[in-house]
Amino acid sequence: MLEQFFTLYLKIFFMMVPFFVMSVFLSLSKNLSKPEKNSVIFKLSVAVAISSLIFLLFGKYIFNLFGITLDAFKIGAGTVLFLSALDMIRGGREIPNTEMKDDSDFAIVPLAIPSTVGPGMIGILMVIGAEMSGMVEITLVILSLLAAVFSLAGVLLISNRLQDFIGKQGLKVLPKITGLFVSAIGAQIIFSGIQGFFLLG
Fold first, then answer.
1. What is the mean pLDDT of residues 48-66?
2. d(CA 174, CA 31)
3. Is the pLDDT of residue 101 over 50?
4. Residue 176 and residue 185: Cα distance in Å, rounded?
């Protein structure tokens, strides 16, 4: 069970593309004080946790509503995730521009959505949610998700120190490394969907 928790935790954490989110956070929060940055991180964490739980717990009902099979959605979601990962590896994923009324209203948009909870993340959460069965597994997945959110908050809390430690060049490399892991997750989900489709077809 501990191994399953750790596997789910790592998968969800990498799907949150933490180092890309860190780059966005550092760019948008450069004029904020430390208390203001902490407030942004708190708002981000709450927004990511709530939105992720919604997609995780209610995704299967969306499948039923639109008559989408899980295998078809796996192929689609995995493809979106794989393409997003390629953008990260090539450096094509840019920091979003946003017009802010004040310096700290970017916590929800674009930091939580779509930088953290983007199309790929939403798709995979819905796939994981549709495959959950039994209270033990549901609890395990929710705990893994919350642990990933806490880890993301931790990365952002030490983001300035991490930037000083690895330098700006290192900060550009980390999202590419994350992209490799995310692309592998995307490819695995696509293959799983194709396998299920042909076995059931």
1. 91
2. 23
3. no
4. 14
Q: What tokens appear for 124 in the block?
A: 């995979």
State the pTM of this model. Answer: 0.87
* pLDDT bracket for residue 99 (50, 70, 90): low
Which of these, 53, 14, 17, lies nearest to 146 by C-alpha position? Answer: 53
Q: What is the largest CA-CA distance in the chain?
A: 57
The tokens for 67 are 């008559």
